[in-house]
From TrEMBL:
Transmembrane segments: none annotated. Residues 128-279 form the MOSC domain. This is MOSC domain-containing protein. Pfam families: MOSC, MOSC_N. It comes from Nocardioides pinisoli.
Amino acid sequence: MRLVQLNVHPLKSGAIRPVTSSTVLPRGLADDRSWMLVDGDAGLVSAREVPGLFHVVADTPATDPSVGAALRLRAPGHPDLLVDVPQSAPVAVRLFSLHLHARPAGPDADAWLRRVLGRDDLRLVWCHAPEQRTLQPGFSQPGDHAAFPDSFPVTIASLASMRQLNDWMVERALELGEDPPGPLPIERFRANLVVDGDAPFAEDGWSRVVVGEVPFRIGKPVGRCVMATLDPLTLTTATEPTRTLARHRRFDGGKVFFAVHLVPETTGRISVGDEVRAL
């Protein structure tokens, strides 16, 4: 297998930032999901609540070396905003049921995001201490940690599995007398690593993968949510791919699954084109 795509998301639910190489840290890819939005009650705000987040382009020096600050925010029709590393005292925030602490980015960043996204309660925060967050018991080891991903530091998806899913979607549409849909892109699943060269859903049986020279441990399969049904360009929702996943990939009390979570076992550098060895 080969690594064919490598994606970082500096702002949780922000636009996907494809890169050709990335540094792997214990918390995941460098700068991946280091920033997130919270509401007036300090709870996570994602594209589930504000789909327009998909159109906010967030870059750091890890995704664009020309960025002259800790974070650069861009959005159509708005001036760019540079954000420095926050120095303010950490505040309590909630990531789903997790109670964490993060540093506020400040009023300029908050005002910019409120204008772009049309909500007056948004605040931008930065994960200053990813080691504060432990991972799901039963699927992690002492010392495992992450910044602001939903569950685990890294996700990996297979193009072979995506092709199979697209074939299943066509079959289902024809069975129901519907026009067959066009293929969905793998980006619907916002994976950090995308590989090709194995059988569809071979990842279900992996226990470890080595990307280049960097080993990862499998955490668990990725349970999918409504965000996979949201078109990142038009911001419209549809029944797919959830409808077809529910037919073929429903496990564990009704959840639907696509891709798998990874936990880095060491640090290192990985690049598009690297060999991927699954165990």
